Each structure stands twice: as C-alpha cells, then as structure tokens.
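For reproducibility, we list the full input for the zinc ion complex.
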Amino acid sequence: MNTTPTEIRRVEEILERKQAELVRELRNRDGIVIQKSADQMDEIQFASERDLVIRNVDRESRLLRQVKAALRRLQHGSFGICVACEAPIGPKRLAAVPWAPRCIQCQEAADRDGQERDESVGETLAA
Ligand SMILES: [Zn+2]
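The corresponding predicted structure, in tokenized form, follows.
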C-alpha cells in the first residue's frame, strides 16, 4: 500500500470517523428495553426484535474491535498487511473495507472456519 503521510492521515480519519459512529450506535443501544406483554403474540414479536438488536450489537462490537485494531496497525506501520499471512491486502479491498484485518483469501478461510463468529457459536449450539 502507498503509505505516504497524507494517505495515512486520510485512512486514519476514515477509521476514526467509523469508530466514533460505532461507539455512538452502541451507546444508543445500552438501554435494550425488555418489553413485557401478557399477549403471547406480542411476546414473540418482542423476542425477535430483541434478537435482532443483540445480533446488531454483536456485529457492531466486532466491527469496532476491527476498526480499533486497524488504527493500531496504522500507528505501528503494519496497516494493509494481512494479520494471518502477512501479505499485502489488496488496495481495492482496503478502499472498500479500510479496517479489514485479513486479505481476501484469509478472510474467506476465516469465514469458513467461523473464526469471526465465535461469540455466537455457543448460542447456536444451545438453541
Ligand atoms: Zn492473508
């Protein structure tokens, strides 16, 4: 990746903006309201809404961790290097997902192994 100081500054701004956005969204969800109703249909509706909120919080928390890690890599000069195979991550991928920790091949492998979904594995098994 072309890591001129201008380019680093630009990526840093994108990452910091994304970080702020995620922090704000996660904070807004702090008060997940557990609604109660005597009506069973309402209960089912509330439960699925709650599930959706929890899944979103999961996803955003994970994204926030990736953004923070990318900012650290930027400071340490290892930004744009795949954390798994240490090959440069493609510029197109970085342009689309600046916080991507892995190159496309390693990400696909990780998705297959479910590495990025470890938090929800317990839930799936329990269900
Ligand atoms: Zn890789």
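The radius of gyration is 18 Å. Confidence is low (pLDDT under 50) at residues 118-127. Both points were considered when choosing residues for closer inspection.
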